[in-house]
Amino acid sequence: MSNGHVEPVHVIGGGLAGSEAAWQLATRGVAVTLHEMRPVRATAAHKSDALAELVCSNSLRSDDAEHNAVGLLHEEMRRLGSLIMRAADANQVPAGGALAVDREGFAAAVTEALCAHPLVEIRREEVAVVPLPQWDSVIVATGPLTSPALAEAIAGLTGEDALAFFDAIAPIVHRDSIDMSVAWRQSRYDKSGPAGSGADYINCPMSREQYYAFVDALLAGEKVAFHEWEATTPYFDGCLPIEVMAERGRETLRHGPMKPFGLTNPHAPGAKPYAVVQLRQDNRLGTLFNVVGFQTKLRHGEQTRIFRTIPGLERAEFARLGGLHRNTFINAPRLLDPTLRLEADPRLRFAGQITGCEGYVESAAVGLLAGRFAAAERHGEQILTPPPTTAHGALLAHITGGHIEAEDGGTPGSHSYQPMNVNFGLFPPLRSALKAAGGQRLRGTEKTLAKKRALTRRALEDIDYWIASGLPAAAAE
Known about the structure:
By secondary structure, the protein is α+β, with helices and mostly antiparallel strands. It has helices at residues 16-26, 69-79, 83-90, 103-116, 148-158, 208-220, 242-247, 300-307, 332-335, 360-378, 391-402, 444-469; strands at residues 9-12, 32-36, 59-62, 92-93, 98-101, 120-124, 138-140, 165-169, 172-174, 184-185, 201-206, 275-281, 288-291, 318-320, 323-327, 341-342, 345-350. It has a 6-stranded mixed sheet, with helices on one face. Strand 16 and strand 17 (345-350) form a beta hairpin. The two termini are 44 Å apart.
C-alpha cells in the first residue's frame, strides 16, 4: 500500500470518471478499491457489466485540438496519461474529424487494464452509504444513474437536493457572437441585483409579427423523445420547457420569460417591443450568457434554426444547446473545494457527471483530476490545480466556482448551476488583441479561428508546464 496506509482509496462507480480516477491512483502507486454495482444491481441504461460502458453515443466528439475545446481536452488527457484516451485511440472507428470508438472494444480495454493492475481491486457491489467509518479517502463517481439509495445518502450529506428530476437546461451563447447593434444591455426597470449595475441583461427585441412567427416555430419544431426510463420522472416545477409554455396559449411567453415590460430599446426610441428575449451572464468571466427561461426539449438542429430567428442572435454561436433529461448532480460550486473535496466531509471527493460536468470526455477528465488530487493527498504532497488557461483548469474552475447564481437564488429545491460541456467560453480571455501579419485587426471567421488557435496553444503550453512543475507557464499569445 502507498505511504504506509493500509486502507485503499475507494472509488464508487465504474463509469468513465471512476475508471479514470482509479487508473490515475494506481499508476501513482496508490492502492484503490473500485466499487461497481453492475451486475449485482442493473441500471435502466447499461447493457453489460463492463467498466466504462458507453450508454448513449459512441462518439467522444471532435478530436481537433487546434480549433475545438473538447479536442483540446482530448490532447491534454493524452499528455496526462489517460486510460480512457488510450482505450479510445486503440479502438477508434471512422468518424471524420470526431473520435468515435467501437464501444465494446473500448469498454473491454478499460476493464482489462484495471483488472490487470496489481493495485486495483474491483468489487461488484452496491454502495448505499458513504463514507464508511474506516474509509479515509473516497471518490464518488456514480454519474446521472446514481442508485436511489446512494443519491439519498448524498443528499443527506450535502443538505442539497441531489435526487433525480428532469433537468431542463437553457441554451448558452458566446457573448461575442451577439449583435449589439440590435440588442442592448439593461435590467428590467433598471434594477440592479447585489452584484449588478442596472444593465445586467442583454435584451433582444421582437415585433408582434416576429413574436408570433417564433411561437409558431416552437410549436412546430421537432422534439426529443424520452427514454422509457425517463418517462416516469416529472417535470421540475418552475422550469417548464419553453415549447410547453407556448402550448398553453400564444400570449403565455410574452407574459412569462419574454415579457417586454420595464425595458426601453435605445436603438428604436419611442417604439415598444412586443416581446423581449433576455440573456443573463452565466460565468464570472462574462464570456457566456444564458437565454433566460429557454429550457427546451427541441432537437439541437431545431434550436439552432429557431433561436437564430431572434433579432440580435442571427449569428449566435452556442456554447451549449438546451436539453431536458433525467439527471443527478450536486450543486458543486457551493459544496466542493477547488480540489473536488466535499466541504462538509473532506474525506469525499466527487468526479464525473455528478459534479455537473456534461459529456463522456468531461466526466473522464474530472475523474482524472480527482484521482490525481487523491493520489497527491495520499503521498502527502501539495495539491496544485491545473491553470485555468487549460481545458482541465477551465472545467474545474466552472465546477468549483465559475458559475453565477441566479439573482433570486433559483426556485426552491433547484440548482441554477447547470451541467456544462467544456467550451472556449470557460477559458480566461487572451490578454492581447489578435492581429494579422501586417498588424491589422482580424475580423469574422479569420478572427474566430485565430482566437481558437491562440487559446489552444496557450493551453497546451500551460498543461505541459503544469505536468512538469505544477506551476502555470507564462502564457505566450
